[in-house]
Design goal:
Structural class: alpha+beta
Largest sheet: 5 strands, mixed
Strand content: 25-35%
Number of strands: 8
Distance between the termini: 24 Å
Oligomer: single chain
CATH architecture: Roll
Number of domains: 1
CATH superfamily: SspB-like
Shape: globular
Order of helices and strands: HEHEEEEEEE
Strand order of the largest sheet: 2-1-6-7-8
Radius of gyration: 17 Å
Length: 166
Amino acid sequence: MSDDTPDSLIPYDEIVQEALRAVVGRVLGEVQASGGTLPGTHHFYITFKTGAPGVSIPAHLRERFPDEMTIVLQNKFWDLKVDEEGFTVGLSFNQVPAKLDIPFSAITAFVDPAVDFGLQFQAAVDDLEPEPHDDAENDSRDGDGKPTATSDDGSNVVTVDFGRKK
């Protein structure tokens, strides 16, 4: 008898990742259905791979964030459209409007700090460390007009990593 776990012929990790990304889609879909207004104090930090297939962002943002960027959906966003594959949203970066198309498969993290909820996803490319980058300051403000701060406490963050064999 061996202590080694046999390789699964069922891609459980991919199935779980897909299901968790569907949570993001459902949440964004409900925001879209409500006219693009977030309920209460909810707001979202969404981190995604800028070079992932299907991602469409302006060239100046791709230059500034060649690997990964985080956007904030809070007060200043518009034209949120969600479908089965991903979402499109308008945001302002340094007072310059931009349209972003982001497939759910490109998302690496989703956080709603208002309720200490977060999901973290495996990167599409294994064993690559993301290049350091600044958070995308897409003109997010709190109710007093002050820039919002990021919460790095990691509360209630679900990390799914099944340790793929090479």
